[in-house]
Amino acid sequence: MSALVFAACVATSVLAQPIGIRSPSWDSLSPAEKQFLAPIRSDWDNFDAQRKAKWRGIAQRYPSMTGEQQQRVQQQMGAWTQLTPAERAVAREQYKSLRSLPPDKKVEMRQQWERYQNLPPERKQELASRPLPQPQPRMAPQAQQPHNTRPVPPPPPQGLPPPPGSPPR
């Protein structure tokens, strides 16, 4: 009888273990994965299992990428490693907020980005050296606003050229 109780306890404890992604150590990576992931080696032990799985997936797809794609991935990984943990957190939040934009806003953001990409390097540097605009204060709740006013839309981003065909500002 006690053997049966013991077996039931063991089976229950095994079933109670959370099922998740295995978190591989750096030493368990293949030589090719280690070579590709070398720029993030110092961060590897701090990554959660999902993030490790994502990076391993990129490393495994890397050999089948075009030269241009490989170069882009390397540049992005290099830029990522230069960010502080706080900057990485901000970047992740911005990425999440961009993903949740409605389709028309995504198109608008993509067009703004393309216009920025086409600017001469001097203009990009000028824009990069400007201080970031302060966030606009949030408007009072609707119940506190007079009935004859409408909310004022936020101003367009400053420093970018107007879209083609728009009136000058």
Write up this protein.
This protein has 169 residues and is mainly α. Among the domains are: 28-82, no CATH class; 84-127. It has 7 helices and no strands. It has helices at residues 2-16, 31-37, 49-61, 67-82, 85-99, 103-117, 121-129. Helix 2 (31-37) crosses helix 3 (49-61). The longest helix has 16 residues, at 67-82. The N and C termini lie far apart (86 Å). Residues 2-18 have low confidence and may be disordered.
Summarize the structure.
The protein is mainly alpha-helical and 169 residues long.
Share of helix, binned: 40-55%
Average residue pLDDT: 77
User: Which band does the percent of strand residues land in?
Assistant: under 5%
DSSP strand count: 0
C-alpha geometry: globular
SSE string, helix = H, strand = E?
HHHHHHH
| Low-pLDDT residue spans | 2-18
Main pleated-sheet profile = none
Radius of gyration: 25 Å
Structural class: mainly alpha
Q: How far is the first residue's CA from the last residue's CA? A: 86 Å
Annotation field: number of helices: 7
